[in-house]
Amino acid sequence: MQITGFNHLALVCRDMAETVDFYTRILGMPLVKTVALPDGGQHFFFDCGGAGTLAFFWWPEVPPPAPGIASVAHFPMDPKTAVGSMNHVAFSVPEEKLDEYRTALEAAGVPTFPVVLNHDDSRQGFSPDMHDKVFVRSVYFTDPNGIMMELAASTKAFGPDDIRHEARGPATLIERN
Questions:
Q1: For 37-68, how does the pLDDT look when each residue is reduced to its tens digit (9 = 90+)?
Q2: What does each of the 177 residues of the chain score in pLDDT, given as a tens digit?
Q3: Neighbouring C-beta atoms of residue 90, cutoff 10 Å
Q4: Quick check: 137 and 119 in contact, CB under 8 A?
Q5: Which of 20, 55, 105, 136 could form a disulfide with 10 if both were Cys (CB 3.0 to 4.6 A apart)?
Q6: Are 95 and 155 within 8 A, CB to CB?
Q7: Maximum separation of any 2 CA atoms in the chain, in Å
Q8: Which of 72, 73, 41 has the alpha carbon at shortest distance from 55?
Q9: Residues 46, 118: one domain?
Q10: Do 54 and 102 belong together in one domain?
Q11: What's the pTM value of the predicted model, to 2 decimals?
Q12: How far apart are CA 14 and CA 132, in angstroms?
């Protein structure tokens, strides 16, 4: 296989008109394709840069949201979601625009996580201050569907020294006990 990049991520919304307004007006992502589905639903695509799109399905009848299972219940206190769920979507933005974009989200009535998070390799995984070990700075918020979003500004390129941990799963937990 030769993966050449991100094509699209498909999510489900509760109201396509509300979703179009949020992604075009607030996030500035152009609506680039609309599809009417034979079952009465819709499938719309938004340009999120880098030749990738964020797509949404809408159907007249769908199961209700399931926070804490299919979406984050409350970040950062409860960031876990179920196996097979989508935890969040992170969009790349220029670092020098991060504070400006956070302010714009709040001015549009979109609640954001109270601080810009500086992700680093410390035990807790983030720092209140910017320093040379910070690899990404983030602003977190949710869209009208309760989907957690992140504006992420990379501060350095990853290299071989950034792979320092062995992968874990249920088998490794059993072996350690």
A1: 989 999 999 999 998 999 999 999 988 889 88
A2: 877 878 899 999 999 999 999 999 999 999 999 999 989 999 999 999 998 999 999 999 988 889 888 888 877 778 888 888 888 999 999 999 999 999 999 999 999 987 888 999 888 888 888 999 999 999 999 999 999 999 999 999 998 988 888 887 887 656 555
A3: 14
A4: yes
A5: 55
A6: yes
A7: 53
A8: 41
A9: no
A10: no
A11: 0.85
A12: 42
d(CA 138, CA 154): 9
Closest listed residue to residue 27, CA positions, set 150, 119, 154, 117: 150
Encode pLDDT of 24-45 as tens digits. 999 999 999 999 998 999 999 9
Phi, psi angles (nearest 5°) of residue 118:
-100, 100
Same domain, 82 and 128: yes
Q: What is the DSSP letter of 71?
A: B
The residue among 149, 80, 76 whose CA lies nearest residue 110 is: 149
DSSP state of 46: E
Q: Are residues 12 and 49 in the same domain?
A: yes
